Structures are given as C-alpha cells and as structure tokens.
Amino acid sequence: MDEEYDVIVLGTGLKECILSGLLSVDGLKVLHMDRNDYYGGESASLNLIQQLWKRFRGADAPPASLGSSRDYNVDMIPKFMMANGVLVRVLIHTDVTKYLSFKAVDGGFVYNKQKVHKVPATDMEALKSPLMGIFEKRRARKFFIYVQDYNESDPKTHEGLDLTRLAVWDVARKYGLDDNTIDFIGHALALHRDDRYLNEPAIDTVKRMKLYAESLARFQGGSPYIYPLYGLGELPQAFARLSAVYGGTYMLNKPECKVEFDGEGKVVGVTSEGETAKCKKVVCDPSYLPGKVRKVGKVARAIAIMSHPIPNTNDSHSVQVILPQKQLGRKSDMYLFCCSYSHNVAPKGKFIAFVSTEAETDNPQVELKPGIDLLGPVDEIFFENYDRYEPVNEPSLDNCFISASYDATTHFESTVTDVLNMYTMITGKNLDLSVDLSAASAAEEY
C-alpha cells in the first residue's frame, strides 16, 4: 500500500459509513477498512434468524414456527429517524436516498401511570389526550400553541420570554403545567433521556418539540418517525456506495487494523496483514483504539420475536413507546421499539420488538421488566448488556477521530449529532443541511 490517504476510516458502523461518504463527497481521499466481512459493525442487521440464534443461543436451530430465515433483518442498534430530522437532511444532501426506500412509522406512544397513551404533539391532540385532566389540557394547549408559533428570529413570538436564559422549569411554571405534563413533554416530545433538561435553557426543549411536530406534519401519520425498508443495515451500505462513487476505497475482512503513530503521537497509517497504508487522519469506532476511550455506561437490551402488535398501540405494525424515568423510578428512560413485516424486517405476521435502557444493574431480565410487560406473549426473547464508550483523546494532537458508542435511545438524533461534530473537527467546517425537505417524500421512495 504505497498510496497516502487523507483519511482512513476503520469500522463500517453507521457513523463511520456516514463520515466516509461525507468526506469522499468533499473530495478527500478515503480508505475504508473493517476487520469484519460485512457492513454495519455494531449497527448491523442480522439478515438470517440463524445469525441471531448463533449469537444468543449457540448451535441450536431456530424453530420452524418462526418462518423463513431470509425474511428477517434484525437490527442490533434499532433506531427510527425523525422525518424532519438531521439524518434525513444528510440523506437528501448526499443523494443517498436514491439507494433506499422508507416508510412512515405507525405510532409514537408514552407510558404514563401504568398505561400506554398516544403522544399528543399539537394543541388539538392535547385537548383529546387522556394524559391530562380538562383544566390541564387547556394549559397544555396554550403552551403547544406558543411552541408552534415560536420563531427564534421574531421577538413578537417570544411573549417576553428569553428562552436562552429561562430554564424549562421556569417556562413550565409560567404556563401552569403540572409535573405529569412536563414529564411526557420532556421525554416523549423533546426526547430528552433524563431529567437534567429541566434546569437547562428552554430554547433546546422548544426546538426539539418543534422538530417533533414538524416531523409529524410531514406525512400526516401517527408518528414523526420513518424507517427504511429491510432495516437499518441498508444505511451503512448506501453510504459505502456513495463513498465509492466519489473515489473512496473499501477493504473488508482486514484482520487487526493496527493504527500506527509517529514519535509525537500523531497517526501516520494503519497496518493490516503486514502492509501499512499511510494517512493523515483516522476515523474509527471505540473498538479500534481501546486505549483512547473510556467506559461511560452500559445498555441493557431485550430482543423479542412476536406474532402480534404491541397491545394498546392501535394495532400499530411499527411503533415507539417511551417509558420516562420518573414513571419507573429510574435514573434514565426506557425505550420500546417495534417493527414488523410491514417494513420487510420479518416474515408475514411476525413482529420484532426491542426494549432498551441505560443499564443500572447487571440483570437485564429484571431491569427491562416494565417494558417487556407491555409486549404481551412472545415467541422468543433474547437478553444482553453491552458497554458504552466515548473518546478521551484530543484529536488536534493525534489526528484520531473516535465515535461514541450507540446509546439506548430508539431515535437517531444523538447519533447524528456525534457524526456532524466529528465532521466539523475533521474538515473545520459545518455541513450545510439547508435542504428543501418539501421536495422529498420520505414515506415513499424519496
């Protein structure tokens, strides 16, 4: 390998593949390597039920009642996309949409007082929601109207509130919202993962609520989310194609992939099978540079195969249910993700559900029980914990850009934020995502 590359990307997880595509489009010379012989890394889809069985049950063969193995695409890091969110803008910006087909997700729900309710996202939905009493509904409706009308650049819409200074608590008190309402707004609409947001400036929460409402309005559907047909495993491959179109080089099944440094600690290349490819920068997931990351947590996860939709979700074939921490007496939220044959990820009549949360114990079966109890009968269920890592190096000193592990959330907002931050650190510029979303219809084939 005599050539020198601007960037070598290690690992074919979704974050790494998005960056590989973006950097190739920018004209950088990119080499993409992976020790595995498949795309996706930790965010891969297990295309055959035998793969899932092998991972969790060893050598046993799956029962014939589960249907055809090749009809399964089981995502290991399942996440929905906000229809008006940043990932969709990246897809349109890069024209990766031509490689993918999407479909809207049927429902967005929240767990409250032992029951599952549809998430009210507009002033009219707030009036109908059983989550609130009649007086609280009126107060919530006023707040939703304020959020819908809020324009950061138009002080007339601010009603005298400086959201860059006022905390969420202060704004909620102004509108007389009770703790219950604040809870589902913060976790099921603004998609905060814990309660730290309550003491932070309200501008972020209002922007998140607006994104939820705008995403919901795009398709007039039951949720603000979309999801690719055949699962998320399609996304890394689509960005790999994009990178290749712009001159990126891919090498799978490359053992070891050892990052090499000079005397000053700066990256100079990557060695595999006795050959070293030179480069100026390295992008990778935490597993390639374990000495430059620290463990920051652990995700507990259950994967269930079922023959029915999740009860109390209006027979939705695809759905997200958020269980806020306060409802469970926990420090972090729990997420329930369900998809099915309607998105071509399971055989006809089969549903795949995931329950995930930031682990607070070493016992996922017990910890995930509140979410599992919402599933009803399951055909098969698998449990696991996996560690989360984040980088501790200084990229300006060693030219290593390491992604953070995937969190427990079942939506993509935190994932894409990490990617765009890395893109800015590598290129010194922000990605222009001011695309016209009205020109694209994600529920069809973009």
What would your notes on this structure say?
This protein has helices at 14-25, 49-57, 86-94, 123-128, 134-149, 168-174, 179-189, 202-219, 234-245, 325-328, 364-367, 369-372, 395-398, 413-427, and strands spanning 4-10, 30-33, 45-46, 74-75, 81-82, 102-104, 107-112, 115-118, 225-228, 249-251, 258-261, 267-272, 275-284, 293-306, 319-323, 334-340, 351-358, 380-391, 400-402. The chain has 446 residues and is α/β, with parallel strands linked by helices. The longest helix has 18 residues, at 202-219. Residues 439-446 have low confidence and may be disordered.
Quick summary of this structure?
Belongs to the Rab GDI family. The protein is an alpha/beta fold and 446 residues long.
> Any idea of the CATH class of the largest domain?
Alpha Beta
Whole-number count of domains: 3
Q: What is the structural class?
A: alpha/beta
How would you describe the shape? globular
- The number of E-state strands comes to 19
Pfam family, one: GDI
GO molecular function: GTPase activator activity; Rab GDP-dissociation inhibitor activity
GO cellular component, one term: cytoplasm
Family: Belongs to the Rab GDI family.
SSE blueprint:
Elements: E1 4-10, H1 14-25, E2 30-33, E3 45-46, H2 49-57, E4 74-75, E5 81-82, H3 86-94, E6 102-104, E7 107-112, E8 115-118, H4 123-128, H5 134-149, H6 168-174, H7 179-189, H8 202-219, E9 225-228, H9 234-245, E10 249-251, E11 258-261, E12 267-272, E13 275-284, E14 293-306, E15 319-323, H10 325-328, E16 334-340, E17 351-358, H11 364-367, H12 369-372, E18 380-391, H13 395-398, E19 400-402, H14 413-427
Parallel strand pairs: 1-2, 1-13, 2-10, 7-15, 13-19
Antiparallel strand pairs: 3-4, 5-9, 6-9, 7-8, 11-12, 12-13, 14-17, 14-18, 15-16, 16-17
Helix pairs in contact: 1-9, 1-14
Family: Belongs to the Rab GDI family.
Organism: Linum tenue
GO cellular component, one term: cytoplasm
